[in-house]
Amino acid sequence: MIFTFEENSRIVEAYIGEYASGKSEMAINRALELSNQGRRVTLVDLDTVEPFYTLRPIKNQLEKLNLNVISSSREDSFGLGETGAMLNPRARWALRNEGDIILDIGYGVFGAQTLNLVEDIDQTPEFKVIAVLNASRPMTNSLDRILEYVEGLGRVDAIVANTHMGDETTPEIISAGNEIIVEAARILQLPIIYVAIIDELKDRKINIFDLPVKYIKRYMPSAMW
Amino acid sequence: MERVIGESKKSFMTGNEAAAWACLAAGADIMFGYPITPQNEIMHYWTRMAPKYGKGFLQTEDELSAGFTVCGGVQSGKKAFTATAGPGNVLMQEPFGMAEAMRLPLLAIIQQRGGPSSGTVVYSQQEVTLTTYGGNGEGHRIVYSTSTHQEIFDYIIKGFNSAWTHRFPVFILGDGYQAKMREPLEMYDPEDRGIEMVKPYPLIGLGGKIGEDRGPSHLCNIYSLEEELYEVITKVQAEYDALAPQITEYEEKFCEDADIILVTHGVVSRAADDAVKALRAQGIKAGYFRPITLRPFPQKELRAAIAKSGAKKLLVAESAIGQLERLVKQEIYGETVKMETLFMPGVGIIESDLIDKVKSVL
Description:
The complex is a heterodimer. By secondary structure, chain A is an alpha/beta fold. Chain A has 5 helices and 8 strands, in the order βαβαβαββαβαββ. In chain A, strands 3-2-4-1-5-6-7-8 form an 8-stranded parallel sheet, sandwiched between helices. In chain A, helix 4 crosses helix 5 (about 170-190). The longest helix of chain A is centred in the C-terminal third of the chain and has 18 residues, at about 170-190. Chain A is globular and about 40 Å long. By secondary structure, chain B is of the alpha/beta class. Chain B has helices at about 15-25, 40-50, 65-75, 85-90, 95-100, 130-135, 150-165, 175-180, 225-245, 270-280, 300-310, 325-330, 350-360; strands at about 10-15, 30-35, 55-60, 80-85, 105-110, 140-145, 170-175, 180-185, 250-255, 260-265, 285-290, 295, 315-320, 340-345. In chain B, the strands form 3 sheets. A 7-stranded mixed sheet of chain B has the order 3-2-4-5-7-6-12, with helices on both faces. In chain B, strands 9-11-10-13-14 form a 5-stranded mixed sheet, sandwiched between helices. In chain B, strand 13, helix 12 and strand 14 form a beta-alpha-beta unit. In chain B, helix 1 (about 15-25) crosses helix 2, helix 1 runs parallel beside helix 7 (about 150-165) and helix 10 (about 270-280) packs across helix 13 (about 350-360). Classes of the chains: A alpha/beta, B alpha/beta.
């Protein structure tokens, strides 16, 4: 499904956010959206602390959908366990891949810091850091908390409003979340590039404050680990 | 007590975060800990929130120290806690044993991971034996095995009260899956649910004169004579046995007429719940029994479920090789019901695993 046809020569975006904010879903959906436009896309799992868990279980599924996925796989695991907190060299040099690069930044508490590990990141003018906000998360469930949280993240170029409650998401939950996030974005003077809504709620009435909407498909529930 | 949650509303989060918030809502004063996966985010979130609420945190040099500093913290009258997993749980058995001996209201959250030794960083149910009976002692502990994020929150609040009321160390036994997975739960301030939190109180440095104003505060973890130790342990055992009926918790479904009862605990009981419903829909009379407290174990209740159902078989299923099964065996010794097992150490057990197993043994 195409929402916005990208004419930029190259897109490089990093999705950051709290645990369960939906950053991996946003990164996957964005990567597939671009790929469906015929663009070459690399999706990078940049979880340095628990590298074998985030996208690994669905790596093959995503590769079948024409994405180049940089994520640690079972074969890469050689018994380091947690002492093997490591940077996948393919992730470190991800920007040297041709085409668009979508980075899924794991480990919520470190925000954008992990991006310092990616080579050439400071020489990539098209690079954007996108904060994914879910107002059902306790650290981002009020205006004050969102302001404090986003200000602590470091560089942020734009916001995705992605309020959800997993399987129990309702139009009311999304609408209420949008209200807080819109106000926070205004104060922070950051653009909300879109409101994310799961496909299943497409026909429901949700207050989106005249913002662009992207209907997303959930991939992470099948990433059981 | 300061209100932390405010208006109760649903949140979407990981189990580790739920644990950190629960400790805050329960009025915990300080966490002592040492990092280990998969419990790290308990520490991360506690340290993010602690400064805002005037709470304390100390990262000690290892788990031995973390356990002992909790022992010290609670003696000074602070509601202290720790969280660990796997090899950290092994190291903490010495302080946990001290907490048993001195009857210290210690609370520890254990997010089980795979073993032996450092094993893997995520999921297993291989810390049941360790958490219920680890240490050189008699397992005078209260162990709540949770299965949802809501329960992690609820039982941490309950656990602090159990610890400070009964003065036995309390364990919230989760696992790597519960630690990391995301699901909604409703957080609340205990007072909004009519739960009164037991105020912590100092165990040492008390005022007044011993023998006149108060009795001695006799906190001891070492005895010179075998007979003295015998007396103390026998007395503690009697107290533990007497308290057990009011501490014991379990969950039972469809056991009235079950031909087979699935006995599971923790996150596996979610699969058992689904499996039993699916089997019933197919006309197979399956029942569900889940000990929520692994110590003290709901022994009478499990025996009663077997008796009333007339079940021919029990199926004990766990992500370990027989750690729950051994508990069940010792607790229902003498029952003649046949025991079947499904042991899947290190990996998750899902509904279809249980359904297939039930069909293969009935």
